[in-house]
Amino acid sequence: MPRAKVQASCPVVSRTAILALTLLLSACGGGEAGGGGGGGEALRPEAGQSEVEASTYLRLRSEMEALGPDADPWVLAHLLLAVPEARARERAPLIITLLDRWGIETSEGITFPLHRPEGRGEQHPDLVLKALAECALETGTPAASARLRPLLEAALARAKPPADFRGWNDAAWLLHALGSIARVDPEQVSPDRPIVGGGDPLWTVEALARGALRELERLDRPVEAALGREVFTRPSGESEPEVAGIWGATCGGQHLLQAVVAAARAGLLPPAEGGAVIRRLEILIARVDAESEFREQEARRAAEHGVSASVIARRRAESLVKLRGHALETISLAIRAAEEGGIPADGGTLVRWRHFLREQADAVEELLRVRLEEIDPEGRIVPRLRVGDPLAWEMWFGDGAHALHGLRRAAPHLTPARD
Question: Each residue of 102-118: pLDDT tens digit?
């Protein structure tokens, strides 16, 4: 179906604001490395990047370019994650387009449209803010995060205390952005800063972070029960929240977990909560292992029932790229948080986490290769999905972007280094 543009009812962001915010590009990789490049070029692997990563990025970028003006904030923010370090300048047009085409100036600051039946935008509130905040974090300087103030103020002005599963699920992007900004600019975001949209001075950044951690503990109960059974099974993510648990949250709840880890890394959670954060990470690691085997068994059963090999391969790749690619992001962030003292992981724990990253990086690399060389070697299937099955296309695009981001984040923690 067509990807219609949301018609903004407020003025779009001024050119001055766009130019100020695009200074964030210095945060996104660095220096004089990389360079631009048009849509049809051959993409060479950069230092530390495999042929598979380079080709996957090229496919993602080509799909974004094929959308033209219908490349919405969700698409642009995800491609921003996928841009390789050495090609940091390619983030410039993405940030400019996000602000110029989709940013809306309000009395509180700068915001972006949400998905609506009449048009497209962010799939979750503050998704763009989170992506730009991660860019600011890469600079390590308060000046970069300070330029996000118009987006942050607008987000805090409209944020309300989550009242249900959906509210907590959507809160992940704001909390992650707050953690990224606080890490380099604790004066702008501190644990006791009120979230003014809640209308309650006790509704603070720390209260949001604590609440998210408690929600994760609640959502993990079905996972812990499944891990305790002799044969691991999992419910559908479409089940009722109390049945689906973490599987009902976006990307299996890993965005909410990443947000809590980002908050802990920045000191937005009290040190006493560190053990609880580690417990959630250990449950994730156990779940990834069990669920990966569950998906492999699912593929074998489908083959026994006569499902075509091509359908099986695509479904398997879809589910495992999502699971393992997001896990690369999550555990890489956790290692960084532990190294900086944000969570109290000991040396043995870090060794296990790095071993887990090694396994996930190898698996994701192979899954991306299968997507490229076996499922769609001629590059014809994905463009058809873009037109005929937008939800499947979004899974291919979004999870591919997270997989590349996860590989990039994991690279410093992988030993031995990848070939």
Answer: 988 888 888 999 877 65
